[in-house]
Design a protein that fits this description.
This protein has 4 helices and 10 strands, in the order ββαβαββαβαββββ. The longest helix is centred in the N-terminal third of the chain and has 10 residues, at about 50-60. About 25% of the residues are buried. The chain has helices at about 35-40, 50-60, 90-100, 110-120, and strands at about 5-15, 15-20, 45-50, 70, 85, 105-110, 125-130, 140, 150-160, 165-170. The strands form 2 sheets. Strands 5-4-3-6-1-7-10-9 form an 8-stranded mixed beta sheet. It has a two-stranded antiparallel ribbon with strand order 2-8. The protein has a single domain (about 5-170), classed as Dihydrofolate Reductase, subunit A, CATH 3.40.430. Helices cover about 20% and strands about 35% of the residues. The protein is α/β, with parallel strands linked by helices.
Amino acid sequence: MKKRKIILNLCTTLDSFIEGANGEIDWCFTDQDYGMTDFLNQIDTIFFGRKSYKQLLEMAPDAFPDKTRFVFSNTLKNTIQGPKIINGDIADEVNKIVNSEGKDIWLFGGASLTTAMLNLDLVDELMIAVHPLILGSGKPLFEKIDIRKKLKLTDTKTYSTGLVQLFYEIER
């Protein structure tokens, strides 16, 4: 059985922020598909941090009903619409999921979960959509990464809006 890949797929500004200073993501382009249909066909599982999960519920409560969803949180006690909560030592749980039958896994975010997963060396690929925008402040894409990660660029895509999508494998 082939090991499932964990793919961090998210949007960032040119100055590497994933949210504005007040948590806003209204700057993310939604005017076209940007490869999301193909990506969603590649995955069957989504990993959310607590804040990202709550934000998605506010914006699109019926999103991704056909995907298995996991919320990583040490404080959340229950979820709406059935995602499983993972807390404590996440490495064992993630490895069980990765080694089970299925398609690849979308690491949806947010920043704390991304940091934890990168520091545990659990992320396989990055798909970063760089939006042609400078926010000046906000929540940075990467913080508190323990060790250097060497990346191999595998693809790029450019769009008429100026958005550039970067595809990387994490070299091990």
